[in-house]
Design goal:
26% of the residues lie in helices and 20% in strands. By secondary structure, the protein is of the alpha/beta class. The chain has one domain: Rossmann fold (3-Layer(aba) Sandwich), CATH 3.40.50.1580. The strands form 2 sheets. The protein has a 7-stranded mixed beta sheet, sandwiched between helices. A hairpin with a 2-residue loop joins strand 3 and strand 4.
Length: 269
Amino acid sequence: MREPVKVAVIGGSGLYDLGAPVEEVWPHTPYGRPSDAIRLTRVGGHTVAFLPRHGRDHTVPPHQINYRANLFALSCLGVERVVGPCAVGSLRADLEPGSVVVCDQFFDRTKGRPDTFFDGPKVAHLSAADPYCPELRPLAASAARQAGFAVTDTGTVVVIQGPRFSTRAESQWFQRMGADVVGMTQYPEVVLARELGMCYVTLAVVTDFDAGLAGRSDVAAVTHEEVMAAFARSRGRLLQALEILLAAVPGARGCDCRAAGQALEPGGN
């Protein structure tokens, strides 16, 4: 029997592999198929489960990702910690493209996404006050700095439905309410991980200034091509940061993420 894989990376736009896999697996889930095969790879001294959330050919848009199948499949392998890097747009002039935000909060603006394992008859209520793992976040920030990123240690990500980008009015509203970055995939990924008792951390790579900055006529609205090109420029440093982070992950968990999910174990898992 294969040993449990304790750590996983869910790759976002532009991150479709972590190197040559030693094995590919398709765990069965009651929620359907995950976005792609889970590839087991050795990184940072760990056997790591890698799953591209959009599929290896980027064929799954953010609003169609089967987040429940993705997280459940990882839990079937024994995963306890999830690193979920993503591309985000900046809502602040001082968060420039090419920098990283280690988010500690999210604001959900999605609609209609299946976002819980508890649709009944079993009912549970997850505490989501602090959704990101407090043990992994400083490790992630340190790893990103060592890889050469300018890093912001905390931040709120607004998660929009996608696949379209924000209007200028929406972007300016997000800025006025104090959000830092905007993306399309952190929700419900982070809360599903927590329902399963997993630790979750993101390295949010800033690729653009969203729909522009309030009062700045010189900042153009984002395009998909710009996002992909900007992420490609950061990919080498991101891979380095992930390797440093995964090597620094302690063997035993010192956080309460497991306890947050202990009473929330879905039936059949």
